Amino acid sequence: MNSLEKRIDEVLSQIDFCKIKKVMEFLDWSYYNDDSNNIYGLVKTAKRLLENCWENYEKEKKDYEVSTGGFKARVYKDGYLSLHFILDSGYEFEREEDKWMF
């Protein structure tokens, strides 16, 4: 196992995939691919996202994130990995007071 695989496994070990599966079942939320709707599939999806992020980070050496089906994987510009499962989020596009700044 190489260093990146160990780092990804460390991130994955901090995620409660059973809890994610329970929430998805409660919300009647499933992926189009039935193979992803079990614990193994959720782990596989999350791992693929982290690997994809790292590949792009290696090319550009800047923050990179990718998401699908509730998962958001990110590599920060300093090389740290993160993984989140998001049910809902919000952010502002532009503040009114910033529109008039020169």
Summarize the structure.
The chain is of the alpha+beta class and 102 residues long.
Q: SSE order in H/E notation?
A: HHHEEE
Main beta-sheet annotation: 3 strands, antiparallel
Mean pLDDT: 88
Helical percentage: 40-55%
Q: Report the count of strand segments.
A: 3
Q: In percent, how much strand structure appears in the residues?
A: 5-15%
User: What's the domain count?
Assistant: 1
The number of helical runs is 3
Radius of gyration: 16 Å
Poorly predicted regions:
none
Molecular shape: flat
Tell me the span between the first and last alpha carbons. 52 Å
Structural class: alpha+beta
Strand order of the largest sheet: 1-2-3
Can you put this structure into words, describing what you see?
The protein has three helices and three strands, in the order H-H-H-E-E-E. The protein is an alpha+beta fold and 102 residues long. A hairpin with a 5-residue loop joins strand 2 (71-75) and strand 3 (81-85). It is flat. The N and C termini lie far apart (52 Å).
Could you outline the blueprint of secondary structure elements for this entry?
Layout: H1 3-13, H2 17-26, H3 39-60, E1 64-68, E2 71-75, E3 81-85
Antiparallel strand pairs: 1-2, 2-3
What brief labels describe this structure?
flat, 42% helix, 3 helices, 3-stranded antiparallel sheet, alpha+beta, 102 residues, 15% strand, 3 strands
